[in-house]
Specification:
mainly alpha, about 400 residues
């Protein structure tokens, strides 16, 4: 069983990428913890918290299509290296501003946008690179293990970040995140895999049109893109607004927020381990939609809980269901896509998957100032559950995959 769960680790290049990405993700979640709390402390506004998330994610919506074309035209390692160096520089700049006590909310918002822009080009390249590191039959396992590293970091990062904030100060969270990018850079330099772009040259616009045409011709791909957008628009705000629940609903502090973030990450790791252990199942669509429906129900339950232990329980389950649905849908998209189109198709998927986050975060932040966090996040969960049931019982194209 253990061997099956970690099957993709048999590939050297995948192991290198996993270790580098996991190290960097730990640093990213340390900064996420410190940055969310810092924005809320400086602005005293949930809307600014939502705006920060929006500015960090909207470049992916705006620029990923271009990033996907670039990922199909150059060595994907080189594109990833450029992206990592930009993110490293932003982390160290924020470290400096905080260290000299010159940081303001607009600095954080501007750097969030710049980091998001780097991710808009690095994301399609990374997603297109992963399938080239393993055999086709091990792709689902590789995607699940990749989800594990990200969500394992969501457990470890907030714990280390919480300790760093309370013992050393928030500046250490940003500085250590900057150092963590060095691990990814080293892993990329050590990879054996090389991607040689095809000789055929098209204009940027023609390449984009070719990618969109490929998606429209493939059965169920449009439905998968639709699901990717709305499951993040309704499912991610619960994570972005955990500081509000920690402070205003559960009457806690930064340690409470760190605990909630870690519990959510632990649930996601558990969900990803389940997906990795199931092997190459044939009913991915049905599993994804069932998980999506359950996720909506758990978000509603969490929203109305005022007990820390119950909140952690519902958050743990929501994290697991979130990751199960994400991993299954991503596997379906990757398996349908050919390698020569992978950068462009994954950029469209990125636009949907990551594009839902800023709009969901901004809308939720605005509505929370008008109503309250529990009611707004519960509404997101209810809409998510209804969407899952619709595709499961009525529009059954994805359920049949």
């Amino acid at each position: 069983m253990v061997k099956r769960v970690f099957k993709a680790f048999a590939y050297r290049d995948f192991r290198l990428m996993w270790i580098g990405a996991c190290t960097s993700s730990v640093g990213t979640w340390m900064q996420t913890l410190a940055q969310s709390w810092l924005v809320l402390e400086l602005s005293k506004s949930p809307f600014m918290l939502g705006l920060d998330a929006f500015l960090g994610q909207i470049p992916i919506f705006l620029f990923s299509l271009v990033g996907g074309v670039v990922a199909d035209r150059m060595d994907r390692r080189h594109l990833l290296l450029i992206s990592q160096f930009i993110q490293l520089s932003c982390a160290f700049l924020l470290t400096f501003l905080l260290a000299v006590k010159a940081v303001e909310v607009w600095h954080i918002l501007m750097l969030s946008f710049l980091v998001g822009t780097a991710q808009a080009f690095g994301g399609p390249a990374y997603q297109a690179l992963i399938p080239r590191l393993v055999k086709g039959e091990d792709l689902q396992n590789a995607i699940a293990l990749n989800s594990i590293q990200f969500n394992l970091a969501r457990v470890i990062g907030p714990v280390i970040g919480g300790l760093a904030m309370s013992k050393l100060g928030a500046v250490w969270c940003f500085g250590l995140n900057g150092l963590s990018y060095i691990a990814v850079i080293i892993s990329l330099l050590l990879l054996h895999e090389r991607y040689t772009p095809p000789e055929k040259r098209q204009s940027m616009l023609e390449s984009m049109k070719e990618g969109i045409s490929f998606i429209r011709q493939k059965e169920s791909m449009e439905a998968l893109i639709f699901l990717a957008f709305f499951m993040t628009a309704f499912g991610i705000p619960i994570i972005n607004f955990l500081p509000v629940f920690a402070k205003d609903v559960l009457r806690g502090d930064a340690d409470t927020f760190s605990l909630l973030l870690s519990v959510s990450g632990l649930g996601s790791v558990t969900g990803a381990l389940f997906v990795a252990g199931t092997g190459n199942v044939h009913n991915k669509g049905r599993v994804a939609l069932t998980s999506l429906t359950g996720l909506g129900a758990m978000i509603v339950a969490f929203s109305f809980s005022t007990n820390l232990y119950l909140s952690c329980f519902f958050l743990f389950l929501s994290g697991g269901l979130l990751m199960a649905s994400f991993a299954m849908i991503a596997s379906l998209v990757q398996l349908i896509t050919t390698d020569s189109m992978r950068g462009r198709v994954m950029s469209v998927y990125n636009v949907a998957f990551r594009g839902g986050m800023p709009f969901g975060s901004l809308a939720s932040g605005k509505l929370i100032t008008m109503y309250s966090a529990p009611w707004v996040i519960a509404a997101n969960g209810a809409l998510l559950a209804l969407m899952g049931l619709w595709f499961l019982l009525v529009q059954r194209r994805v359920a049949k995959l």
